[in-house]
UniProtKB/TrEMBL annotation:
Keywords: Membrane, Transmembrane, Transmembrane helix. Residues 80-200 form the THD domain. GO terms for molecular function: tumor necrosis factor receptor binding. The chain crosses the membrane at residues 12-32. The keyword Nucleus does not apply. This is Si:dkey-220k22.3. The lineage of its organism: Eukaryota, Metazoa, Chordata, Craniata, Vertebrata. GO terms for cellular component: membrane.
Length: 205
């Protein structure tokens, strides 16, 4: 019960954070001066407005990473799998690709935690990064990425990377996956969640 309440509270907080990020992004685009020479295109304001008028969808996903493949692709567990019907699986058979069967606009939050191993040299540096791969059924490409460089000493250190995404899924075959490096130093221990992804359907097409 405590885990369920913590998960719901986490989803609520993440939803609020995603909304603030979306508003900030729109305001930044509108008010920041445009770089000379850039082509300015008309924006469909009604489409943006419809996103903000839309009530928050009940379609919310929470997946936690439990392992990784040889190519550093994260393996996921669906935290709310028991609430879905047998034919509503959102993971492929390898549990590495997240499938979103319904078209729409999705808010996505990805958090990846690393437990960096001690190094004898106090000036040793480790680059941590992850990338979100997107597959539309025709081709696979890198949609987004995050990285950082950490100085590692003689003690274990935690390193966290995260990113917010706004993704427009326009095909039933759309899916996404996450790869993280160095994969041998990923942290899967829940606190209550460590490495996870939250997906919220914000609006229809």
């Amino acid at each position: 019960m405590d885990t369920t309440r913590a998960a719901r509270a986490h989803i609520l907080c993440t939803s609020i954070a995603l909304l603030l990020v979306l508003i900030a992004s729109c305001l930044t685009y509108i008010f920041l001066p445009k770089v000379p020479g850039c082509k300015i295109c008309a924006i469909n304001a009604s489409a943006i407005a419809s996103i903000f008028r839309h009530q928050l969808s009940q379609e919310q996903l929470l997946l936690t990473a439990c392992n990784h493949t040889s190519d550093s692709r994260l393996i996921w567990e669906d935290e709310w799998e028991e609430k879905r019907k047998d034919d509503e699986s959102i993971l492929d058979h390898n549990k590495t690709w997240i499938i979103l069967p319904k078209e729409g606009v999705y808010l996505v939050y990805v958090q990846v935690n690393f437990n960096l191993q001690p190094q004898k040299n106090s000036t040793s540096k480790v680059e941590v990064k992850f990338q979100v791969d997107f597959d539309d059924g025709d081709r696979e490409e890198i949609f987004s990425a995050a990285h950082d460089t950490r100085v590692v000493n003689e003690n274990f250190q935690d390193a966290m990377l995260n990113t917010f995404l706004l993704m427009h899924m326009n095909k039933a075959s759309n899916r996404l996956s996450v790869r993280a490096f160095p994969s041998d130093q990923l942290n899967y221990q829940p606190r209550p969640f460590s490495t996870y992804i939250t997906i919220i359907k914000w609006a229809d097409n």
